């Protein structure tokens, strides 16, 4: 499986993601410039976190119509995998590769902490190494992570199993108190209806080595490389 | 020709900035403040001299880039 890590002006989690794939998973990985549109050789493109194009206009808005992001549309139609982390999630919603949008956090502040998450669907290419209902802990660091989607779309996503991760407390209770940003239905990560595009606000690439404190992110990456 | 875009959070979409500004105005004694929406204002200057064409172009710009209609409402006006 060959990975590409997208690089936009302002991406800042690109090297962390590259490091995890190359040095921890020992998989083939290259950086992919945002002006590149020939991405056929890749099997999975990861759109990393950061502040692409300074988050001007709306987070992810300008990055969503660059040559690379435009090429991702055809790439996903072929059934290949795309994962958006944090700003990458925002870019994928702006590009309509995932439903919904990310609004500013309801409390108006940047949030940066370790967060418990509940695995709502483990029957996906991104979560097959996890158990359904399992509680994992990943870092979150964002100002615009407040997931919004209209009620009709939300209902369809729930029926299809497209809600992959929800913010919860340490016992797995999905409550308003465990919601760090005001997201609809505590949503932290979603998939498209074909289950080959995954977006999440937490940072699994920052949780892959015990040296850094958390290792649950590795389970997501280990799921992906099994495909 | 100038296109002026006025963009604001859609009705029912949380607007933390608007809420904070509303509270701030009330704390200054403006007790009749009912609600505040904070949005953005964008000026786009175009070479085009045909107003109908500019209207069509403005709608396309909003749809493709300037506005996310899931979370934002907008209006625009053309200044010749």
What would your notes on this structure say?
The complex is a heterodimer of chains A (227) and B (80). Chain A is an alpha/beta fold and 227 residues long. Chain A has a single domain (3-224), classed as 3-Layer(aba) Sandwich (Rossmann fold), CATH 3.40.50.880. In chain A, 21% of the residues lie in helices and 25% in strands. Chain A has helices at 14-24, 67-77, 87-94, 151-160, 217-224; strands spanning 3-7, 29-33, 44-47, 81-85, 101-103, 111-119, 135-142, 146-148, 163-167, 187-191, 197-200. In chain A, strands 2-1-3-4-11-10-9-6-7 form a nine-stranded mixed beta sheet, sandwiched between helices. A two-stranded antiparallel ribbon of chain A has the order 5-8. The radius of gyration of chain A is 16 Å and the shape is globular. Chain A starts with a strand and ends with a helix. In chain B, strands 2-1-3 form a three-stranded antiparallel beta sheet, covered by helices on one side. The termini of chain B are close together. Chain B is 35% helix and 28% strand. Chain B has helices at residues 16-27, 51-66, and strands at residues 2-9, 40-45, 72-79. Chain B has a single domain, classed as 2-Layer Sandwich (Mth169, Chain: A), CATH 3.30.1280.10. By secondary structure, chain B is of the alpha+beta class. The mean pLDDT of chain B is 94. The chains are: A alpha/beta (227), B alpha+beta (80). Chain A binds chain B through residues 57-58, 61-62, 65, 94, 100-101, 103-108, 146, 148-150, 182, and chain B through 13-14, 16-17, 19-20, 64-66, 68, 70-71.
């Amino acid at each position: 499986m060959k990975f590409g890590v997208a690089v936009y002006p302002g991406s800042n989690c690109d090297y962390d993601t590259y490091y995890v794939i190359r040095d921890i998973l020992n998989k083939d990985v290259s950086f992919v410039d945002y002006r590149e549109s020939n991405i056929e050789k890749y099997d999975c493109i990861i759109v990393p976190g950061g502040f692409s194009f300074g988050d001007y206009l709306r987070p992810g808005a300008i990055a969503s119509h660059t040559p690379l992001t435009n090429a991702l549309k055809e790439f996903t139609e072929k059934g290949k995998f795309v994962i958006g982390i944090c700003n990458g999630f925002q870019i994928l919603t702006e590009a309509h590769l995932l439903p919904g949008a990310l609004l500013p956090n309801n409390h108006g502040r940047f949030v940066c902490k370790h967060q418990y998450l509940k695995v709502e669907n483990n029957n996906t290419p991104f979560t097959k190494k996890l158990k359904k209902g399992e509680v994992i802990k990943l870092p979150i660091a964002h100002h615009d992570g407040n997931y919004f989607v209209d009620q009709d779309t939300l209902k369809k996503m729930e029926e299809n199993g497209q809600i992959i991760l929800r913010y919860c407390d340490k016992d797995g209770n999905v409550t308003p108190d465990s919601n760090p940003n005001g997201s609809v239905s505590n949503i932290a990560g979603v998939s498209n209806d074909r289950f080959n595009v995954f977006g999440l606000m937490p940072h699994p690439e920052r949780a892959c080595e015990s040296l850094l404190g958390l290792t649950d992110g590795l389970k997501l990456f280990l799921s992906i490389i099994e495909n | 020709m100038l296109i002026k875009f006025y963009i604001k959070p859609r009705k029912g979409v949380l607007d933390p900035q608007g809420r904070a500004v509303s509270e701030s105005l009330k704390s200054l004694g403006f007790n009749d403040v009912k609600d505040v929406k904070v949005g953005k204002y964008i000026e786009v200057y175009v070479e085009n001299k045909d107003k109908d064409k500019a209207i069509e172009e403005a709608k396309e710009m909003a749809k493709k880039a300037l506005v996310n209609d899931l979370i934002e409402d907008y209006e625009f006006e053309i200044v010749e």
